[in-house]
Every structure is written in structure tokens, then in C-alpha cells.
Amino acid sequence: MTSWLWSASSDRARPLPLLIALVLVLACPAVAAAKPLDAPEVTAASVFAYDVATGETIYDVDADERRAMGSLAKIMTALVTLDHRTRDAEVVIAEADMVPAGYSTMWLQVGDILTVEQLLTDVLVPSAGDAALALARDVGAELGGTDDPQSAVAAFVDAMNERAAGLGLDDTRFANPVGEDDADAWSTAHDIARLFHVAQEDALLAGMLAQADYGFLSVGLEQREYGGLSTNELAGQLGVTGAKTGSTDAAGGCVVLARTANRGRNTVIVAILGSGLAYDETGVRIRDERWTDARTLITDMDARWKWGAPSRSAAEPGATTAMAPAGERPSDSSPPEAATTMGNRRPERETFAIALAGGMVAIASGSAWIRLRGGRT
């Protein structure tokens, strides 16, 4: 005979087996998010990697440790620029935009005119410091109501920090738009991954971050030719769909990248800070472990990580741990063809310099195509 259980709040009987089954279902815990992997041995001081599709953290190696970030700061420079300028707005290059020898540069010419889109390409593909300063000065002049270049750039930096606060990047602070080492500038691998996620959601910026090379003519009367290759040495490899590099004496080798995995079903963002980096006496890079670290992490995650099904609610790194969502400016452009779905010393000398050392050669001018494996990236 079937057993019955009477409820004190009801005059109807419920079958005991059904009630027991209901209690068991309610008592079962929700499926827990996968635990992060123990990261393989790398030289990086900090690593954070997460699956965009699920929000699950794959690696967390001192991901909340504040560190210098080098030219990864230029990601925010690009975002703040697009908060205030359209892609076709024009900028006249000024003397104040020039950078000293050894800085990452596109050798922009004073008086030349470039569009915001062209300058952003310079900022994100070869990581040009002069392009970043030109945009910061131009936008900052409006924000600060000043024609003084230094004051304008300071106003722009204030906007960078306000944007970071708005995105909930509590462990990030900027002191300049190019990523030069400064005691008042820092970020974490965790925050950099989140920042890159925001940039990847903008179609224009995502297309630039995916480019392996670029070339264009300025819109000034002389129509100067600018061009070169990306600092991203993993472009088109291992599923990498976009990346931004950074390096300084304090930051070491840094890179943040996006890649597709699990046969294209999942997208991963990996932030690497403080990888082994060394230069010879001429300033040419002779050791750069960030790419080895990136390959090691990618190979390991593909071998050991259990890919989860995409979650509609997972839009931020660590979403499974209730991370606050990051807001984003809607893109005002359709994706370009290149887009995919997805110390106080010198700032980085990324790709552009004139050098002949260790068998590596770079020849550069305002109208030359450039490739340099040495220098700071």
C-alpha cells in the first residue's frame, strides 16, 4: 500500500515517494563551476585566463597582484578616444606628440594629418607612442578646455582613470596614455583581461587587434605612407584572434590575447604580466619569454581543460564568482574584414627603431614598411 504524508497547511494528501524525490532534488547542490587548473611552469609573474563562453577561470596565478603594465595601457587610450571621437575625425600632428629616441614610434611627421582610425591602428598594431600622445592631446584639449599639450594629456589621463572606475577595474590606475613606467600606474592580470574583453566587444578595435600588418596613406596634403607589422607574434597561430603587447623595465614582458578553442565553440582571454625579458647593451631585445609562456599555457589548457557549454549569463571573466559586469560603448562601426569573432625609465621600444644587431635588421622611415624582432615590445 502506498504511504501518504499529510501537510499541516493542506487537507490534501501527497504521495510520500514524490515528496521525498522533491526534497532530494532541492537538496542537491547546483553544479559547481570547474576549478582553475594549476598553471604549468612559466616565467610570468601573473597570469589570468578565462573562458568567455562560460565565465570560468582557467588559470589564476597571482592575478590580483598590482604590477606595471607597459603598453597594455594603450588599450584604455583607444577606448577613451572612441568615447569622444568618431573614427573619421582628423588630427593634426604636433611637436608635442613626438617621443624621444628609444620609444615605440611611427615617426609621425609634425603637420601631417591622420584620422582617428589611422592613429588607433598605430596605437594597437605596432603600439606607437607618438600616435597615442597625438590622440590624448587632441581629445584632452577638449576635455580640459586647454590648448596646453601637457595639460590636455593630463585631462585625458583623468578620463582614462574615470573609465577604469566605471568598468569596475579597482586595481588599475593610469599615469600616462602610453604605458611609461610610473609609481602611480599599475594594473593586474585580472583587470587587464577584463579591459581587453571590453576592447574585443568593439568591432573597430577588435579588427585592429586582429591585424597582422597594416598600411595606409595619411590624409594630409603629402599623403605620407605608414605601415608595418603587428607586435603580436602569435597572429594567426594557435587560434589567436587578437592581442596587445607591452613591455618596460618594470613591467617585463606582457601580452593579453584572445583565442578560439574547442573547435571554435569557446573564446579564451589570456593575460600575462611580467614574463622574462632582457636587452643587450644597445637596447635590442635578446630574451622575450612571454610568447613561450603563452604557448605553454595554450597547449596546457587544450590538453587538460574540460570545456563547458556556453552560458548566456557569462560575459565577464569570473562571472561564475559574481564579478560585476563591465559596461561598454556600443560600436559605431561594422566589423572590418580583419575582425574575427571573438622603475621610471623609458617606455617600451616595441617594434620601431633603426638597428643592426645580433643578425636582426630594421630599417624605418615615415614611408617604410618595418619588421624588427629586437627592441622593446
Walk me through what this model shows.
This protein has 377 residues and is α+β, with helices and mostly antiparallel strands. The protein folds into two domains: 1-30, no CATH class; 31-362, DD-peptidase/beta-lactamase superfamily (Beta-lactamase). 27% of the residues lie in helices and 20% in strands. It has eight helices and 15 strands. It has helices spanning 16-27, 74-84, 116-124, 129-144, 149-166, 189-200, 203-210, 290-304; strands at 4-6, 13-15, 46-51, 57-61, 90-92, 113-115, 213-217, 225-229, 240-248, 252-261, 266-275, 277-279, 285-288, 355-357, 360-362. A five-stranded antiparallel sheet has the order 4-3-11-10-9, sandwiched between helices. A hairpin with a 3-residue loop joins β9 (240-248) and β10. α3 (116-124) packs across α4. The longest helix is centred in the middle third of the chain and has 18 residues, at 149-166. The chain is globular and about 55 Å long. 48% of the residues are buried. Mean pLDDT is 81; it is low at 1-14, 16-31 and 318-375. Residues 38-274 form the Peptidase S11 D-alanyl-D-alanine carboxypeptidase A N-terminal domain. It is an enzyme of class 3 (hydrolase).
